[in-house]
Amino acid sequence: MTDARKVVIIGAGPAGSTLALRLARKGIRTVIIEKSAFPREHIGESLSGECGVMLRELGFQDQLDRLDFPVKRGVSVYGPNGRGAFWVPVGEPGPDGTLIEGTTWQVRRPEFDTMLLRAAQDAGCEVIQAAARAVLRDDAGLPTGVTLRFDDGRTDTLDADFLVDASGLAGFLSKAGVAGPRERGSYSKQVAFYAQFENVRRDPAPHDGNTHIFYQRKHHWAWMIPISRTKTSVGIVVPGASYRASGQNPEDFLTARLADLNDEFSRRMADARRISAVWSTSNYSHKISGFTGPRHLCLGDAHRFSDPIFSFGVSNALKEAALAAPAIEAALALDPSDAAPVMRAFESLVTGGQDRVETLINTFWEYPLAFLKLAHFDRPSDIAELFSGRIYDPSADQLPAMQMMYGLMHHAATAERASA
Amino acid sequence: MQRNSEFTTYFNTWVATELGYQGAPLEPESPILEMGLLDSLQIMQLITALEEREGLSIPLEEVVEENFQTPAAVNAMVTRIKAQP
Fold first, then answer.
1. Is A86 an 8 Å CB contact of chain B?
2. Domain ends where: A354, A388, A415?
3. What is the pLDDT of residues A196-231, one digit of tens each?
4. Cα A324 off chain centre by
């Protein structure tokens, strides 16, 4: 039986589509507003272990196999001059709950995102191709719908009992003033340049689908993510100032960094041939506080994005959608005043997850050798668990590795204050 | 503080026996990381050796490249940690 209450979701990326799928399976009416025609290109191809588990639970194993996406078994990280190299296997919960080595996927986003959207549609979700423009609100200021603008210039309005912003970096509800203002994130001065290549030197099978990350000095790094049997997504991330100082165009800048960013990176790119344009992106690191209310919430990149180094983006999106579905179901059955605490609990849970993601990334950049010691020697299973997705579970704070990282970041903050 | 010359003698023995280093003897200010003498695994090996020799535990915040640039820098780190209550 389909409920008459309607959840309107802005954005058909992995967060929006999997939320729609989960809600539709609960019998809740969903409408996705998406401005782009699918399939469309998107960056962010690597999934975590828990993300693989969620996709299997949602029933996508066969489709993912048919799409022949590369199987990811782990991540190798290479530091400068052979210092700071470590390996983190993909982990997933074993039968007794402990972490065992598992596999997940690297995905081509046009196909992956289309697969998820079709599944949502098949489950009953309506998809409208239009741009969401403004938020309609009632006397109490609660969202009651959105205005739409179609490609041909027509406009329309759509009622909503609950509004979800899964618009990614566009941050729809923040711009509309419904969610809090957008703040710059810790990595807001970074820029990324990326393209697809053939003939990239991978590890031998069965490890030929793994992610490789290379770093030079602080905040200068590169990724290598296989996205088919022959194609590899390759990108570099550097402070914007270092790009501007080069005076180079994106193509030349990327080519130059392939040669000098990291010896191991250059070795693997020696015979590589670029088969796509060079894309670039900047200003992606941001944070929005106050991203839920009794009748709205923001998911994934729409409220926070720090640094893409450990490929948490799609996994966070799927995880937050999984946490949002029961929260929205509960909120829809409650008066706004009773729904507010439900949404605050969701916001606090999600903020905790994103805070842990950022602590992990900050520790890596501030203390790369100490991070290596933790990841490779002292607490490898803790780090594998965090990378695999346990990062949204509040109990992750009890992991010794997490405690040690909090200690390191506290030390860094104290040292910074002392030197200021 | 352990004299840098004393520590460097120990360090020379360590790199010879543990890493098979056969080059010219290292000086207190030899740039051991720049020379490529220690990779990441060997830094970790050195940490373990130092912890055993000195009976101390090197906290994670000391595991930074600056503390492993030269034998003198390693010695200064060990001395600093030993001085802590």
1. yes
2. A354
3. 999 999 999 999 999 999 998 889 999 999 999 999
4. 16
